[in-house]
Structures are given as structure tokens and as C-alpha cells.
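Propose amino acids for all 175 sites.
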């Protein structure tokens, strides 16, 4: 069953390449978070509550790729990792899936995602490559309504079959 699309918050904007954003899930109000501000590859990306003052681990740089397909192709890079990984000259911290899996992590290699607008300033994210998205049927999803501070990885974002539920809808807000 397709759910009604909630209204985007008043702070939601259309993303612009090279700009930094908070990325919010519409179902739970969780923000995309580089777990514990770690700069290592395979670090989980969580859906987490918004702190009073968001840190750089909640800020994501939106970067687009050229596309001849008509799709908006992008990646997200953790601002914290880009600023605190000097041995890689600011590289790394890109949102991607685990190898052969469905969990969302940060990694040193960028991963191409397709931005799918479902309503004004409201989006779904699906891997651009059909092999990773199972022909567009998988999207990034906030899988846990509760915040599990004792086991943060319970809040790890995951690729789930697209059912157009609010847990699969995301917005960008300027930092």
C-alpha cells in the first residue's frame, strides 16, 4: 500500500551540487548521521535524532554526476570525514551500501545514487546501477522508529524494497 506523502518541513530545499545539508527522514524526523563521527570505511550511517546544534557528522555534501539518462545522479559525502581525514586529502565519507549487502555505510569510494523526487523537496534515494538497486526496486530506508543509544547500529539505514512509505522519504535542509 502506498502511503500519503507527508508535507516536507518548511526548511526543506531542492539540493544544489557542492552545498552542505542536513538530510531528514520524513517518517521519524531522524537525521542522516555518520555514526560516532568516525572517519573509517564501513562506518554505519544512522537515522538519528537531531541535536540542538548539529555537528559535522550530521552534515552532508551533495555532489552530482553528469548523466545522459535524464536522471539526477548524486552522492553524499560526510562533511566530518571530508574535513578530518587528512591522509586522504579530504576524500572519503561517501554514502554507499555494504559489499553484497543492504546496510548503508560510509566509504572512501563514491557510490552513484539516483535522486527520485516524490513531491516538492521530498525525495527517495536508489542506487543508480540496476545491479545494486535490483532494477530500481530498493531505496534507502530509515528502518527504526526508536533511537537505540545502547546499540546504535539498530538505527543503521538500509536498502529496502520500495513501498513508497514515509520511512523512504528524505528532505534536504540548508545548514
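Proposal:
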Amino acid at each position: 500500500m502506498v502511503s500519503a506523502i507527508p508535507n516536507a518541513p518548511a526548511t526543506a530545499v531542492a539540493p544544489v551540487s557542492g552545498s552542505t545539508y542536513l538530510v531528514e527522514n520524513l517518517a521519524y524526523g531522524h537525521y542522516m548521521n555518520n555514526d560516532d563521527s568516525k572517519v573509517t570505511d564501513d562506518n554505519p550511517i544512522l537515522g538519528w535524532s537531531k541535536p540542538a546544534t548539529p555537528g559535522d557528522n550530521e552534515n552532508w555534501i551533495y555532489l552530482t554526476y553528469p548523466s545522459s539518462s535524464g536522471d539526477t545522479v548524486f552522492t553524499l559525502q560526510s562533511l566530518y570525514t571530508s574535513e578530518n581525514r587528512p591522509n586522504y586529502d579530504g576524500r572519503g565519507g561517501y554514502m554507499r551500501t555494504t559489499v553484497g549487502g543492504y546496510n548503508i555505510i560510509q566509504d572512501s569510494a563514491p557510490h552513484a545514487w539516483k535522486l527520485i523526487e516524490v513531491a516538492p523537496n521530498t525525495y527517495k534515494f536508489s542506487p543508480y546501477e540496476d545491479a545494486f538497486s535490483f532494477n530500481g526496486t530498493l531505496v534507502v530506508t530509515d528502518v527504526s522508529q526508536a533511537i537505540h543509544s545502547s546499540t546504535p547500529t539498530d538505527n543503521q539505514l538500509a536498502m529496502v524494497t520500495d513501498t513508497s512509505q514515509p520511512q523512504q522519504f528524505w528532505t534536504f535542509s540548508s545548514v
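The chain has a mean pLDDT of 89. The longest helix spans residues 79-83.
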